Amino acid sequence: MGEVTEQDQEWRFVQGGRLLPDAVVSAVGYSSHLDRPCLHVGMPSPALTLVLTFDEPVVSGFQPSGDDAESTHLVLGGLHTHPAYVAQPRTQSGIQLAVRPLALRRLSGVPAGELRDRAIDARDVLGSGVEDLRQRLAELTTWPERFAALATYLRATTAEVTSDARPEVVEAWKWIARQRGTGSMSALARHVHLGERQLTSVFKAELGLPPKAVSRLMRFEHARQRIAHAVRAEAPLDLSAVAHSCGYYDHSHLVRDFHQYAGSSPSRWIAAELRNIQAGAGQPAEEFPA
């Protein structure tokens, strides 16, 4: 569990390790001291986002104008296919988790489909216990203590809830991840022994998105991880090669996805997020088989 800090000390990110692999892909503690407030773009991913902030509440929404903004210390965001916008104050700290969408039932009994294109107060789904957790984490003084308390909460919560998604949906999600979002929908339907229409129906009911949209998110997440790895390693970045290795038809299709998911081109996104990526932000939202 290592700490990675920017040279100018503006951002600090701490990796939480594998707290509960079946439910949480990754967890990152963060703290920042900025010269001025800024607007952060949260890209879509194949994970739900859970944020527990220890200072000012998080102000977020899906409109850059802020017309739909919600303010809360506990944010739970569903799957979405367009950027989210987060107003970042000068000083903030907290923990952000990438939660497996199919695990939400085991954390709350609620399917992730009910959160599509929404960012809500996590207490509305996870109950008042998550606010007790947030306050306890804020009172602790070290990141290892916080992550240990968070892991205990997650284990206890998943042990209390027995709700599970349909097995066909669970297997379909695993298949899409194994294919890194590049498999055909007809092959996926055959794999889970459902018709394509029926698969789309049960998939959307559980996750809020059809399997084709989730496949695009998986493919984009694979590309984003490769780009972030190259940036952190200060290695030469060939976006055409990234596009080819991640299953895109060509470079322009990767650029198209960046415009949809990040609201900008890959080069502009890298320039805007360079310091955050180098400091350890942008934790994985899916773990792909080797």
| Biggest sheet character | 7 strands, antiparallel
Strand content: 15-25%
Structural shape = globular
CATH architecture type of the domain at 3-160: Sandwich
Structural class: alpha+beta
Domain HTH araC/xylS-type: 184-272
Keywords: DNA-binding, Transcription, Transcription regulation
GO molecular function: DNA-binding transcription factor activity; sequence-specific DNA binding
Protein name: Helix-turn-helix domain-containing protein
Give me the secondary-structure topology.
Layout: E1 3-5, E2 11-15, E3 24-33, E4 38-42, E5 48-53, E6 58-61, E7 70-72, E8 74-77, E9 84-88, E10 91-99, H1 104-108, E11 119-121, H2 123-126, H3 129-139, H4 143-160, H5 167-178, H6 185-192, H7 196-207, H8 211-232, H9 239-245, H10 251-262, H11 266-279
Antiparallel strand pairs: 1-2, 2-3, 3-10, 4-9, 5-8, 5-10, 6-7, 6-9, 8-11
Could you describe the 3D structure shown?
Helix 3 (129-139) runs antiparallel to helix 4. The protein has a domain at 3-160: Sandwich (Jelly Rolls), CATH 2.60.120.10. The chain is 43% helix and 20% strand. The strands form two sheets. A seven-stranded antiparallel β-sheet has the order 1-2-3-10-5-8-11, with helices on both faces. A four-stranded antiparallel β-sheet has the order 4-9-6-7, with no helix packed on it. The chain is built from eleven helices and eleven strands. It has 290 residues and is α+β, with helices and mostly antiparallel strands. The chain is globular and about 50 Å long. Mean pLDDT is 90; it is low at 1-9.
